[in-house]
Amino acid sequence: MSDENGRVFREAWIEGVRAHYPGDPKPGYVAPWEETPDWERASAAAVCQQVRDFIEATGGNASKLTREQKGRFVALCWTGQIYKHFADPKPAYVADWADMPQWQRETDSDIFEHIEKQR
After folding, report:
1. Predicted confidence pLDDT, tens digits, the chain (119 residues)
2. What is the pTM of this model?
3. Domain of life here (predicted)?
4. Label partner for 111 (CA 20 to 30 A): which of 3, 56, 71, 86?
5. Which residues, other chains included, contact 93 with Cβ-Cβ below 8 Å and sequence gap of 6+?
6. Region at 109 (left for phi over 0; alpha for psi -120 to 50; beta for the rest)
7. CA geometry: angle at 30 spanning 97 and 63, to 5°?
8. Residue 2 CB partners (closer than 8 Å, separation 6+)
């Protein structure tokens, strides 16, 4: 997985957390790339590539998705990465869209849109 893809994802995540998280986010939420665990770096790169591949596969027409649909796509891809790296993840780590906090849904939507603008 590309380090560049991971950094694009991570930058969008941090921007989204800072914009949408109520109060002060946990330090790990906004830690710089260099302090991000290896599994999380690999996951960020993988999800960024999945979003890019999806946009490409639709001929750019993924732009017609609603903001929620874009966020759901990111969330589902991330959940797949959690299952890849953790045998028995905490339920909150693999929560369905409806069970995710609003700040996280907004951040996931921001991530898709950030990647989309990188094209």
Report:
1. 589 999 999 999 999 999 999 999 999 999 999 999 999 999 999 999 999 999 999 999 999 999 999 999 999 999 999 999 999 999 999 999 999 999 999 999 999 999 999 87
2. 0.95
3. Bacteria
4. 86
5. 79, 82, 86
6. alpha
7. 45
8. 45, 48, 49
Give the separation between CA 95 and CA 103, rounded to whole angstroms: 14
Strand residues in the chain grouped as ranges (E): none
| Burial bucket for residue 9 (CB in 10 Å: 0-12, 13-18, 19+) | buried
Tokens of 50: 């999945």
Q: Which residue has the tokens 């991000």?
A: 36
